[in-house]
Amino acid sequence: MKAPSSTPSVAAQVAALPDLALPDLWALWDQHFPRRPNRVNRGYLEARLAYRLQELAYGGLPAEVKAHLADCGERHSKIKTGRGPQVRLMPGATLVREWDAREYRVLVTADGQYTLDGKTYRSLSAVARAITGTHWSGPAFFGLKKTGGAR
């Protein structure tokens, strides 16, 4: 039989958050986050701390789920950040672009990177820069992003 743990369960820690005095809530915040947020209310502090306690105990969301949720929020939010949703390409997809009378073929790798002429790049913008020698939006360069004009 296991000896009882002196640390309360995650559920008990989360349930106790509304009963904590504000200085104690901030002390807990400081244990888990590098800096304090601007303009917050108690509900925000409790919700963010509850998520963090559960994240530490059970693990966070996979990166793909976080990215998908961010894209959904960007598409459906009335607050516009100007970033727009990210383009999602399937591993194995090949992007073809002609530039200066040469055809370039870029392969999307399983880890979300891009290969051009045997060299791997972290972003489409880095690939576009390697091809053109100047800064480009990678999705725009490869025709994946709608630009001004007729849509």
Write the layout of secondary structure elements.
Elements: H1 10-16, H2 22-32, H3 42-58, H4 63-76, E1 94-99, E2 102-108, E3 114-116, E4 119-121, H5 124-132, H6 138-141
Helix pairs in contact: 1-3, 2-3
Describe this structure in words.
With 151 residues, the chain is α+β, with helices and mostly antiparallel strands. It contains six helices and four strands, in the order H-H-H-H-E-E-E-E-H-H. It has helices spanning 10-16, 22-32, 42-58, 63-76, 124-132, 138-141; strands at 94-99, 102-108, 114-116, 119-121. It has a four-stranded antiparallel sheet with strand order 1-2-3-4, covered by helices on one side. Helix 1 packs antiparallel against helix 3 and helix 2 (22-32) packs across helix 3. The radius of gyration is 23 Å and the shape is elongated. The N and C termini lie far apart (67 Å). 8% of the residues are buried. The mean pLDDT is 86.
Name its key features.
single chain; 151 residues; alpha+beta; 4-stranded antiparallel beta sheet
Helix-strand category: alpha+beta
Beginning-to-end CA distance, first to last residue: 67 Å
Spatial ordering of strands, largest sheet: 1-2-3-4
Q: What kind of sheet is the major sheet?
A: 4 strands, antiparallel
Mean pLDDT reading: 86
Portion of residues in beta strands equals: 5-15%
Give the SSE order as H and E letters: HHHHEEEEHH
Q: Give the number of helices.
A: 6
Question: Count the strands?
Answer: 4
What is the alpha-carbon Rg in Å?
Answer: 23 Å
Contiguous low-pLDDT stretches (5 residues minimum) are none
Shape: elongated
Q: Helicity level, as a percent range?
A: 40-55%
